[in-house]
Write a structure and sequence with these properties.
Radius of gyration: 16 Å
Strand order of the largest sheet: 3-2-1-4
Distance between the termini: 25 Å
Shape: globular
Helix content: 40-55%
Strand content: 15-25%
Order of helices and strands: HHEHEEEHH
Length: 169
């Protein structure tokens, strides 16, 4: 596989935020970590990046926005070095939800758009520090206590969009 094939195949892993501490997750962090490892296996220099965003800035249905959730969240994306310049790659949203969220494609040369509208972007140095600290079970449980119902509804909304997308194929 080449870098574009990796991008598309990982992008199309259905985005999913776990709602239980022991559940598998396919959120932005895990998808971009997988892309990072895949691109680096091809000898491509990459780095994980982090920004903050507001869930309410996404085109979510009003009913979903009304579910209690943290106003701000962290978002992971990737940068890759092409011709001595860092390009942004964001494969967060999968093809199955292109009717509800902006799905990116990549030409292997230039940046993609971010999946979210950042309210704060961390420097590469801050990202290295933040990614070196692993979330503890206590931190994860605290997040789930606040956001579990929102994540369940978000996952359900995306799952319904995927069903409709794939039923048309």
């Amino acid at each position: 596989m080449n870098e574009i094939d990796y991008f598309r195949s990982i992008r199309d892993i259905p985005y999913y935020i776990s709602t239980d501490i022991d559940e598998a997750e396919h959120s932005c962090y895990f998808k971009h970590l997988l892309l990072k490892n895949s691109l680096e296996s091809l000898g491509i220099n990459t780095r994980l990046r982090l920004c903050e965003f507001r869930w309410d800035n996404l085109p979510l249905p009003k009913g979903l926005k009304r579910i209690i959730h943290s106003e701000y969240a962290g978002h992971t994306y990737l940068e890759t070095e092409i011709d001595k310049k860092w390009e942004t790659l964001d494969l967060t949203w999968d093809k199955g939800i292109e009717s509800i969220l902006p799905v990116q494609d990549w030409d292997g040369l230039s940046s993609t758009n971010l999946a979210v509208l950042p309210t704060k972007v961390y420097s590469p140095e801050e990202c290295l520090m933040r990614f070196s600290i692993k979330d503890t079970p206590e931190i994860i449980e605290r997040d789930l206590k606040i956001n579990r119902e929102f994540y369940k509804a978000l996952n359900g909304w995306m799952s319904n969009a995927r069903k409709e997308f794939y039923s048309k194929k």
